[in-house]
């Protein structure tokens, strides 16, 4: 049983409360003192002893109430931290000041194939000098390449005063996202969402309206367009901003794990379960927001359980018989066409309507016109700062390729292209050949998609005008932007049927 004692703070009262506990014969698993509160976790405490203890505690001068609680605040914070670490798809390690592992998240454990707590860094990484170098520099080193379990990763160390460091390992193809992590350190809410294009302005204006309405919100858009960023921004300006924002990626976990992550499990639910059960994200985020990413991948069974929660705010933990009621706002996101999934029968229609009370559509990068350049330049500055190289710039010659690319991986792909260029290019001016994008454009052409120079130039011209038209929606504006005559643009717009298909 877990008990919460509230008292009026006075000298010696906590000792008197503790003396009452010490005088009784039951096991104490944890005691948390947060004056004017004491929280007690006593697993073997029976109902009869509890009554007698309650009387005794209420007899102490200043004690105001003795109530039962589900979980101690410190335990709740630990579980929230575990949930945050588990949600990180990047391997994360906390190490002490001697370079020994204190804790590792599930992604790190999966990568090295064992629980590494207690081991020195030399036992994990292939580089025998890494531990010494990190300690000698007080864990203050620029991001650099390491090798763990045969994989090349980028290691980012964040020193923690007098307590070692937090080490994060990034897959090289996810490194660009590190930039936005840096960016988020400073920008809050919608300021983190870069872009001035009409498409992004419309999104931000609408998002700011729906963020404050306390109802489920479905965010749709292609992969890497910033759906999670939008969800975080919505939480940050909502009335729930002081409560947790916890995320679950529905595509990353098998059904049973996703169920216990989201709904928690009851005491003794299955062999190996944590004593006293485990709170799920819904309970941990009470009063806050739960973000269900890739909600289209949710299994039919979980869809049914989530529907019930959205209908009446209640659910049961796995293996539990008690109804739990929490007050959580559900934000969800998907890159899938949910309406189509509903018509094909792979997503519940009733759940779709519950999740889709409010809706946001995040536009693909290729529809954001000049935002591509704005973001590319911004990411370039961040990349240079991050890898501690002198500032470099994108040569104007890269612009047509950046604007003309289809960006199937959207902002995430753009971040990666820019970061790689910043890491590889030795000149202060990054040119087209330094961008991976140049290769992909050429590959497309080599693949025989175009038959002649005229057709290739035509495709490029059409693509460029389509992109630019979103930011410069008239032939006059476009002509000024491209420094050509109004009639040259008007002829081309007619030729390519722009804006007809935009
Ligand atoms: N408008 C933006 N301004 C700055 N950074 C952005 C913007 N949009 C996206 N990003 C960055 O792009 C990366 C991908 O964004 P995010 O994870 O939010 O996309 P997503 O749509 O949720 O992706 P997925 O579909 O894969 O879950 C992140 O690093 C994010 O910070």
TrEMBL record:
Where in the cell does this protein reside? Cytoplasm
Read off the InterPro entries from this record. Answer: AAA+_ATPase (IPR003593), AAA_lid_NorR (IPR058031), Homeodomain-like_sf (IPR009057), HTH_TyrR (IPR030828), P-loop_NTPase (IPR027417), PAS (IPR000014), Sigma_54_int (IPR002078), Sigma_54_int_dom_ATP-bd_1 (IPR025662)
Keywords of this entry? Aromatic hydrocarbons catabolism, ATP-binding, Cytoplasm, DNA-binding, Nucleotide-binding, Repressor, Transcription, Transcription regulation
- What is the annotated signal peptide range for this record? none
Q: Name one GO biological process term.
A: regulation of DNA-templated transcription
Q: Say if the entry is tagged with keyword Lipid metabolism.
A: no
| Sigma-54 factor interaction domain mapped to chain residues | 193-423
Predominant cellular place of this UniProt entry's protein:
cytoplasm
**GO MF:** ATP binding; DNA binding
Q: Which PROSITE patterns match?
A: SIGMA54_INTERACT_1 (PS00675), SIGMA54_INTERACT_3 (PS00688), SIGMA54_INTERACT_4 (PS50045)
The organism sits in which domain of life?
Bacteria
What GO terms fall under cellular component here?
A: cytoplasm
Quote the protein name from its UniProt record. HTH-type transcriptional regulatory protein TyrR
Q: What is the species of this protein?
A: Pseudomonas silesiensis
Traced from the root, the source organism's taxonomic lineage reads: Bacteria, Pseudomonadati, Pseudomonadota, Gammaproteobacteria, Pseudomonadales
